[in-house]
């Protein structure tokens, strides 16, 4: 153990799914360095997901997204003052790999780690790191995240450790779910329209499985789609409005989750809940596939370095294929 490492900063500002897929490293850092303080630097809107995490000492929030939108000198000063008050840190790890996150990392201290210029979406960001780690951008995101942290902190995170991980987030609220049938969560939204599986096909899945199907929504458009599904299936009910920490707890009470490539879907893997991720314009690079967490990819060819947001091939995934996988996960069929 490196006794010089006493305080670590993780920089992963956004987005929800990326934060979920990054937070796995916390349990491994804690096991290797149990006496270290670990702070997470994050956009304020995502902080509720992390504030109760047992391996975090502090969650430090910034409003960089608002700063970028408003272009306010006053807000810039406030952000810079906030960053200057966070440290000092013995090591800072930028898990995001963008220019904005690399600037934040540089302002936090001298000993910064990040992806090298061949492994990053914005190569200029790598110039601001003290040391860099090489792992292809096309590699699986979980492997990228764990490789970066393991390299920065000089220890190993192997595939077996990832497979045997403990649930990543704390359950902060208990949800009583019906026990007469299996409980299945459906995620109807995503950040792009082309990542969304058609609601008409989700209805077919609900009606065929005949289990307790809970339709999770996050905004007004998603709520309308959730209500449409419930109106066309006697087995579907709309989930309550959920804060981020409540969403983790709700998903943790499910027997299965079926959803698009989006943050709430990744939460099922994070909590060791069986899941099926439906993939159109993205690939299984975005998820950690296990015997109980699987992806179904459409037939389109994806260039992960240049995502085509007009690739609507997800609609071509047959709902019968989803049913087969669901029945295997639910009943072993």
Notes on the protein architecture:
The chain folds into two domains: 7-163, Glycogen Phosphorylase B (Rossmann fold, 3-Layer(aba) Sandwich); 183-331, Glycogen Phosphorylase B (Rossmann fold). The mean pLDDT is 96. Helix 1 runs parallel beside helix 11 (263-270) and helix 8 (199-209) packs parallel to helix 12. The chain is α/β, with parallel strands linked by helices. The chain has twelve helices and twelve strands. The N and C termini lie far apart (46 Å). The chain has a six-stranded parallel β-sheet with strand order 3-2-1-4-5-6, sandwiched between helices. A six-stranded parallel β-sheet has the order 9-8-7-10-11-12, with helices on both faces.
- Using the CA coordinates, give the radius of gyration: 20 Å
Give the strand line-up of the largest sheet.
3-2-1-4-5-6
Structural class by sheet pairing and helices? alpha/beta
Query: CATH class of the largest domain, please?
Result: Alpha Beta
How much is the average pLDDT? 96
CATH superfamily membership of the largest domain:
Glycogen Phosphorylase B
End-to-end separation in angstroms reads 46 Å
Low-confidence stretches: none
CATH architecture of the largest domain: 3-Layer(aba) Sandwich
Number of strands: 12
Enter the CATH topology name of the largest domain: Rossmann fold
How many structural domains are formed by the residues?
2
Order of helix and strand elements from N to C terminus: EHHEEHHEHEEHHEHEHEHEHEEH
Number of separate helices: 12
